[in-house]
Design goal:
Layout: E1 5-14, E2 28-30, E3 43-54, E4 59-63, H1 70-77, E5 85-90, E6 93-94, H2 99-105, E7 106-109, H3 121-131, H4 136-149, H5 165-177, E8 183-187, H6 195-209, E9 214-219, H7 222-228, E10 231-236, E11 239-244, H8 246-251, E12 257-263, H9 268-275, E13 280-284, E14 290-295, H10 302-312, E15 316-322, H11 326-334
Parallel strand pairs: 4-9, 4-10, 7-8, 8-9
Antiparallel strand pairs: 1-3, 1-5, 2-3, 5-6, 10-11, 12-14, 12-15, 13-14
Helix pairs in contact: 3-4, 9-10
Length: 340
Amino acid sequence: MGIGIRTEDLRKVYDTPPPTAARGAGFAWSGARGRNRDKKKIDVVALDGISLEIRPGEVFGLLGPNGAGKSTTIGILTTRIRPTAGRAFLGEHDIWREQVYAKRLIGVVPQRPNLDFALTAREILLFHGAYFGQSARDRNQRTQELLEKFKLTDRADHLVRTFSGGMMQRLSIARAMMHNPEVLFLDEPSAGLDPQTRLLLWELVREYNRLGKTIVLTTHYMEEADTLADRLAIINHGKIIAQGTPPELKASIPGGYLLRLRFDRIPEPFLSEIRALPGVREVRSGDHSAADIYADRGGSLIPGVASAAQAAGVELQDVHISEPSLETLFLHHTGRSLRD
């Protein structure tokens, strides 16, 4: 039932910026400025010691902001990016020492569609099946099944260049499933899709997983990770900052609720008053006007905060309350949103 994946202390350091890297995008930059600008060496640390164990037959999510290292991790596991250090295994097989074996067992849906616009949807699926050695009968049958499943039958013989973004994404996933891989990698599969298409893709992913297939999903959509993943890891700056089932991770937030408050000013005695309120577990203030309160209740805490503010001569200007969620967890660890 499925094939598991294991990584051991994966590191990836680029000596030149990768195409999608940019300052502030989640990569760690280092390097000395030399006398000659052309000889300047820049190191981009995309992964900084990632160790994971993905169980056979589960849906595993990699969650994090853009530039966190999700796509680099997928690139290593699918033989597209060679790691600087560490090892990765598909079952008991070393992915980078047995690349041909690994490629036969995996299906990959990249972050951006890489379909051949000069072909029809049917041709793309048939050629993919032939590439993996399927007989003419088998690939014709499998192609028809997938076209129907992904609701592409009426456009099967149209050139892909005429497809919408959602149709291209459906075809990309159908192509990845064409040779019936044991492990399916989905890199940001819902990016830019309308809600209806997203729900359809979710159901198709669940259906494939019910066949015992292992699925690795990268996303920065909290709802997608919460809905699909059996377990997940949250990555930031190339490191895993949390790992577990969605309920376990949400339960690990101090108090569960996050109240993000803004005042005209925050004197230290006032912060002490807030910390003493019943139900408050933790208070963080990064500047002189904002405070994050982690508590075991939400709206019912506001009157106490307002009273403390009035007594201290402080003006409460804005209130935002978040229930326990993966977004709240990420804010607790990093102080910023998953979308940042």
